[in-house]
Each structure stands twice: as structure tokens, then as C-alpha cells.
Amino acid sequence: xxxxxxxxxxxxxxxxxxxxxxxxxxxxxxxxxxxxxxxxxxxxxxxxxxxxxxxxxxxxxxxxxxxxxxxxxxxxxxxxxxxxxxxxxxxxxxxxxxxxxxxxxxxxxxxxxxxxxxxxxxxxxxxxxxxxxxxxxxxxxxxxxxxxxxxxxxxxxxxxxxxxxxxxxxxxxxxxxxxxxxxxxxxxxxxxxxxxxxxxxxxxxxxxxxxxxxxxxxxxxxxxxxxxxxxxxxxxxxxxxxxxxxxxxxxxxxxxxxxxxxxxxxxxxxxxxxxxxxxxxxxxxxxxxxxxxxxxxxxxxxxxxxxxxxxxxxxxxxxxxxxxxxxxxxxxxxxxxxxxxxxxxxxxxxxxxxxxxxxxxxxxxx
Length: 366
What we know:
- The protein is an alpha/beta fold and 366 residues long.
- It has 2 domains: 4-275, Rossmann fold, CATH 3.40.50; 283-357, no CATH class.
- 44% of the residues lie in helices and 15% in strands.
- It has 16 helices and 11 strands.
- A hairpin with a 4-residue loop joins strand 3 (108-116) and strand 4.
- Helix 3 crosses helix 4 (76-85), helix 6 runs antiparallel to helix 13 and helix 7 crosses helix 8 (176-187).
- The longest helix is centred in the last third of the chain and has 22 residues, at 336-357.
- The N and C termini lie far apart (48 Å).
């Protein structure tokens, strides 16, 4: 079945001035956001370069190296970027405002880039969770903290773009980047919101109940499109008041989070009626688990878990994966309560899986 690469081959000769951004374009731009453009794309919003130029410089810098974006981001995104950059549609986009901010003290992982699609349209893209352990801790912090630092930075970034650049604004992101997209659009000034065409949340987590019940969210939600694969796990986390769209993926389970697995037909994804039973049971399981813990308990659990990971001196998931001794050291560093919580979650997960996936036997006796 066709994917993002096939779409570029099919639609790549048509510029954005001829055909506006659609849902597939959105995902491609949110995926390219994972590429490290440090030293290639200016942090300034007033010094754009062509995407084809940025791609060429990136590939020259990493010539002869195997593409690698971390332990969880598929390296094929580099190939996607290179393919897109050769096309008229994407290669002619100008890019600017590249930021990649990692701060252990404030527990922040934030990265963004701005695409100038044509003379009238802009797309702000937020990166999802990268390879850094601190980035993962910030994700976990969302279960008890509001806002997390990356959400505040996303809002500031969007307002800076709106101030510096004229035109209609699309906002996008994949995974945590999708959450940042929805957050920034919800909290932005009215004059900025009026310029927003659409904010895409591609399989990103939702928010707590207080946030989605806020007047700002209710005012902005008509501009938010949440798109998730049929077996979504990440995108079903926390709460979504806005209706979400379910699309088909060529992968299974958690691997459906990979944007390169999302199936395309023409200029759109292949849409489905609902998420899978697997996605539903995992959603119920996690909500049940979180519901049993107070905000203070969640914070203590997250702090203990990531303190143990930090004690290994590992900075990224790659560090852990390449030195398995660090994983054992981290596990041994967990206190009893944290270990028990992890075991309890695993037990609950398998209990719910059995209950929801395997249908009960019918009584055939007469």
C-alpha cells in the first residue's frame, strides 16, 4: 500500500501555491522536523533557506554515515527528507527558525522549525520526543504537571512566528509535537488564532480534564485535527475532547506510531471508522492505572524512575541500549514502591489484555 514516499513521487511536482497543504503534507513536514538542522537552518525567522539546500548540507555533513536519529526515531526519515527535498513541492519550501533546546535542570526537550510554504502560508512544526532521557521524563511529567516547559516554549515560539512572519499559519507535530501543536494553538492570542488554518496533532497525547474543559480549549478545538493510527497507544493517552480521525497503518501495535507506516491513497490517508480493540484496552488500562494514583504519587514515581536512569550517567536511550549494564543498574536503583508500581502496571496490562482481547466462551449447554 502507498506511503509518504509514494505520495512525494505522485504529488511532488505540484507546488503549495498551486495546491494547499493537506493531511499527508502535514505528516511529512512533522516527520522532517526530527532531522537535526543545527548549524544549517538559522534560528532567526528572517534568514530562511530552501529545504533542498538544507537537505544537501545535512547529507554532505553526514556523508558515509549510516542514518541515525536515535533509538526510537526511524532513520528512514532522513531518506524521506532527501526525497522530499528533490521534489518541486517540498524542495522549494524555505525553512527558518530552527530551535533545539535540551535543558536537564528545567527538564525540557523542545525543538521546532518553521516552513515558509509560499508567499501566503506558513507551517510551524514541533518535534516529538527525541532520544534524550530528559525528553522522556518531560513526557511523563505531563501526567501531573501543567504546563510542562516544552508546552510553554511552543506557545512562545508560535507567537514569535506570528509576530515576525505574515500569512496564514498551519501548525503540526508528531507524538509530543502534536500535543505541543494543540497546546500552542489553544493558548495563543486571539489575533494569532484567527490566522490559524489548522493545528495537526499526529498521534500525540491529549491533556488533563481541567485543560480540555477550559474556555480557551473549547474556543480553539474546531481548528485542531487529531489523527491517530488504528492501534494507537501514544495518541490515546490522557484526554481528547475533540473528535479524532483514525487511519490505517501497515505496522502493528506500538510500531504504528511510526509515521512512515501510515497508509496513503491519493492526497489523503486511508481512514477507518474506529481504533482497534487493542488500542481501546490499553487506553482503559492506562487511565485506570493513572486514576489510582494522586498527582503527588505520579510525581514521586516519575522522579524515582528517572533518578535511577540518571544515576547511570546515560543521557539518551541509545546510551542505555548500547550498554545493557546501565539498564540493570537503573533497575537495581529503583526503590521498592517504584518497582511495585511498575509490576502492578504490567500485571494490570496483561489482565486487561486477556479480558478485552479474548472473548468469553459461549455457554453451549442446553
